[in-house]
Amino acid sequence: MKFISLTTMILSVAVIVGADDTQIIGHPCAKANHAECGAITSHNDDLPFLFLCGPDYTITEYQDCTCYSCCELDGPYASCF
User: Fold this and answer.
1) Alpha-carbon distance 25 to 4, whole Å?
2) Each residue of 21-58: pLDDT tens digit?
3) SS3 sequence of 21-65
4) Mean pLDDT of all residues in the chain?
5) DSSP designation for 68
6) What's the domain range around 72?
7) What pTM was computed for the model?
8) In the record, which residues are listed under signal peptide (predicted)?
9) What is the pLDDT of residue 15?
10) How far is it, in rounded angstroms, from Cα 8 to Cα 20?
11) Using an 8 Å Cβ cutoff, are 40 and 18 in contact?
């Protein structure tokens, strides 16, 4: 299992952000400055993705997960495998 701290997530924009689907960036989210798990119909074959909700309550970074139960939050750590 791969764990990503919020700091690592913030510093790894180029790795986490999918360049082929910019529609996710800017989508509304609920918890400013927090990592969250979510799913959006028609994205990633409806599988969840891990994302960082920015200070303006929009998604600023994300990483697609590979299965329905693969996105986990554990305190300051988030994982998507």
Assistant:
1) 19
2) 558 999 999 999 999 999 988 899 999 999 999 999 99
3) CCCCCCCECCCCCEEEEECCCCCHHHCCEEEEECCCCEEEEEEEC
4) 79
5) T
6) 4-16+23-80
7) 0.69
8) 1-19
9) 35
10) 22
11) no
